[in-house]
């Protein structure tokens, strides 16, 4: 049994500073067990050097399974070593390698993330090193359509497959597009026809209807949801039954915000970095403008509770 046997595979996308332990646990609690969690990427170098903060980012509760830990890095041997360390220490259900991150710190000088889409030999060497390590868990790759052109993936994906990758997740945009523009699901569909390993489609999926539509267009084995889950950990609930009877009401949101905030405070010691989640939870809710501004100043659970009490419940 692997983490991708059950189809369609529904996945929470890895998002740096977002899909940390507290957020992943909340998604699991409100949405149940029918989806796979990708934790935010961690540096292979930092793992190998024994950086405590990075190692702590890999810890998870048993209840969070199925869970994949994602590494970024450039050196095949160091990535292999990092994977061996985290598989032995934490026993995740899979190891993923980031080959799509566009931020200059990673894709620029560091030769990792999206830069690997331009250096196929290095990308192949990374996959081979991980497969040679016999980690006992699948090795997957998360990438984009290309550096600047949508069809670059048609050359890259078969190479990853040949090198031994067990699955590929494809964000349907190029590195040049960043996070804007419409994801090209048709191109992901072409990759699906080209390779035998499972393909997960990603990009522009913000509702359960989008999940269904994306699966139809791409015929992919699964869908991965990133920003659509922020402030909406319910999105994975009961898929593919999109006719669910109960969508979250304001009181449900408040209850989950409190639950999430407690976990966040336990983990980080305060709620300063929770403000970004609050912005997502209360986005677009009418009559909240002034309260939203207050929420952006909170640092403690007490402060948060006091503001939440002021939200008018109809
Ligand atoms: C804040 C943020 C952080 C991200 N961090 C990562 C990451 O750590 N690893 C990764 O492979 N992709 C990362 N991504 C990309 C997402 O996993 C996903 O591919 C992208 O957001 C497109 O999917 P979406 O349209 O559903 O958001 C990040 C995206 C965002 C918005």
Keywords, separated by commas or semicolons:
single chain; 314 residues; alpha/beta; TIM Barrel; 2 domains; eight-stranded parallel β-barrel; binds flavin mononucleotide
What class would the helix/strand composition place it in? alpha/beta
Q: Remind me, CATH topology of the largest domain?
A: TIM Barrel
Mean pLDDT: 95
Largest sheet: 8 strands, parallel, barrel
Strand order of the largest sheet: 1-2-4-5-6-7-8-9
Oligomer: single chain
Give start-end ranges of low-pLDDT stretches. Answer: none
Ions, cofactors and other ligands present here are: flavin mononucleotide
User: β content, as a range?
Assistant: 5-15%
List the helices and strands in order: EHEEHHEHEHHEHEHEHEHHHH
The percentage helix is 40-55%
Query: What is Rg?
Result: 19 Å
CATH class of the largest domain: Alpha Beta
Please state the overall shape, judged from the principal axes of the Cα atoms: globular
């Amino acid at each position: 049994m692997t983490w991708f046997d059950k189809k369609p595979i529904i996945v929470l996308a890895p998002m740096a500073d977002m899909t940390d332990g507290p957020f992943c646990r909340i998604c699991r609690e409100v949405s149940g067990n029918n989806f796979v969690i990708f934790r935010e990427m961690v540096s292979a170098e930092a793992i190998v050097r024994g950086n405590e903060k990075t190692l702590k980012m890999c810890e998870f509760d048993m209840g969070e399974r199925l869970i994949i830990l994602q590494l970024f890095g450039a050196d095949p041997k160091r990535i292999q070593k990092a994977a061996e360390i985290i598989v032995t220490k934490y026993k995740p259900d899979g190891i993923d390698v980031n080959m799509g991150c566009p931020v200059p710190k990673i894709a620029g000088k560091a030769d990792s993330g999206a830069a690997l889409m331009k250096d196929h030999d290095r990308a192949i060497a990374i996959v081979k090193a991980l497969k040679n390590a016999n980690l006992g868990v699948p090795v997957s790759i998360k990438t984009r359509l290309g550096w600047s052109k949508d069809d670059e993936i048609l050359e890259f994906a078969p190479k990853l497959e040949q090198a031994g990758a067990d699955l590929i997740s494809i964000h349907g945009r190029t590195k040049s597009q960043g996070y804007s523009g419409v994801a090209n699901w048709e191109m992901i569909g072409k990759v699906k026809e080209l390779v035998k390993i499972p393909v997960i489609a990603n990009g522009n999926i913000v509702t359960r209807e989008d999940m269904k539509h994306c699966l139809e267009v791409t015929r992919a084995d699964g869908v991965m949801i990133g920003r659509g889950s922020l402030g909406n950990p319910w999105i994975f609930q009961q898929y593919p039954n999109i006719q669910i009877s109960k969508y979250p009401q304001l009181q449900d949101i408040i209850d989950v915000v409190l639950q999430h905030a407690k976990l966040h405070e336990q983990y980080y010691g305060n709620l300063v970095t929770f403000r970004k989640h609050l912005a997502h939870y209360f986005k677009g809710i009418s009559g909240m403008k002034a309260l939203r501004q207050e929420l952006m100043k909170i640092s403690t659970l007490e402060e948060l509770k006091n503001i939440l009490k002021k939200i008018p419940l109809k």
